[in-house]
Amino acid sequence: MYWKIFVLLGLGAFVLLSAADWVFTFTLLRTHPHAIESNPLAAACLEQYGWNGLAVYKAFGVLAFGLSVTLLLRRRPSVAAGVVTLGCVTLLSVTTYSHQMLCTLNREARTLREAEWPSPAPSETAAVEESPIPDRCWFADELPPEKKSRPTITTVQTSHRQREARLPAVR
Q1: φ, ψ for residue 39 (rounded to 5)?
Q2: What is the pLDDT of residue 133?
Q3: What is the mean pLDDT of residues 105-109?
């Protein structure tokens, strides 16, 4: 009975983490157009069918994982608990990586925006200020404790190719 409750709670956590992964992917790809989806199957679904296609792809992945763990739970409950734990830890690491990437890209965009010379036209500033992404994360500090000092910017102008080279791929 203990294993069954543990596995069901783990499956619930897996569903929530999958939804968070989709939201972070959506936010990264919509707000940072140079970012890419690094999973080739997910990228193909996104390219062919759009955001709804990616949501269906993720939903089928969650459904397949849930059904396989449920079948495993009937025969080997302890193994099912291990599988659901491994799945949650893996998805948690992907979601944490995506969140960290969002924070880093937003911090860099804000730093570049503050360093621009001359100031951007009012229409450009309005589009940036209307961004749906908050400046601070609700559960993490803006900067790690060892990086609390403000970075020094040596070059103000960067080319389009240099910015693309610095953007990491979305997992």
Answers
A1: -80, 115
A2: 60
A3: 84
Instruction: Tell me the domain boundaries of the chain.
Output: 2-166
Over the stretch 25-48, which tens digit does the pLDDT of each residue have? 999 888 887 888 888 999 999 999
Which residue is listed with tokens 């070059």? 155
- In this structure, are residues 45 and 54 in contact, taking their beta carbons and an 8 Å threshold? yes
DSSP letter, residue 118: S
Q: How many CB atoms lie within 10 A of CB 13?
A: 16
Query: How many residues are present in the chain?
Result: 171
DSSP bridge pairs for 37: 170
Instruction: Compute the CA torsion angle 14, 17, 22, 28 (nearest 10 deg).
Output: -150
Rounded CA-CA distance 101/95 in Å is: 10
In order of 14, 25, 35, 57, the CA distances from 67 in angstroms are 13, 25, 32, 15
Of the listed ranges 52-56, 71-75, 80-84, 112-116, the least confidently predicted one is 112-116
**74, 55, 71, 75: which is closest to 15 by C-alpha?**
55
Query: 60-74 pLDDT, tens per residue?
Result: 999 999 999 999 999
